[in-house]
Amino acid sequence: MKTKAAVSLLAGLAQETRLSVFRLLVEQGPEGLPAGQIAERLDISPATLSFHLKELTHTGLTQARQEGRFVIYSASYRTMDALLAFLTENCCAGAACETSTSSCAAPIA
Fold first, then answer.
1. C-beta of residue 62 within 8 angstroms of C-beta of residue 69
2. Contact (Cβ atoms closer than 8 angstroms) between residue 9 and residue 61
3. Which one is the CATH code of 3-88: 1.20.1110.10, 1.10.10.10, 3.40.50.720, 3.40.50.12780?
4. DSSP assignments along 31-62, one per residue
5. Number of helices and strands in the chain (H, E)
6. What is the pLDDT, as a whole number, of residue 96?
7. What is the pLDDT of residues 11-70, one digit of tens each?
8. Which residues, at least 6 apart from 81, have a Cβ–Cβ distance to it below 8 Å?
């Protein structure tokens, strides 16, 4: 991943509502959620949510698919993993370390 792409992805997450939406979608897994359920769970107005989902989808952090009359949004794990790999690329000065995007670490206090 190029630095410019990483900056674009980080900018997409650098807003409280978008970060909350993205985290919720990551928790939901590949099945994702319809926009209405996202709005309900996060107590966001539909117009505000629509704007933020557009921004997240534009960056490639989320993807949308049509299911009947609903638009289902899900996190793009491939994009998320690429960003995490970019951020940890030079971890531990090139020495082997325990950083992994596929395992959960203890939360930061």
1. no
2. yes
3. 1.10.10.10
4. T-EEHHHHHHHHT--HHHHHHHHHHHHHHTSE
5. 5, 3
6. 63
7. 999 999 999 999 999 999 999 999 999 999 999 999 999 999 999 999 999 999 999 999
8. 101, 102
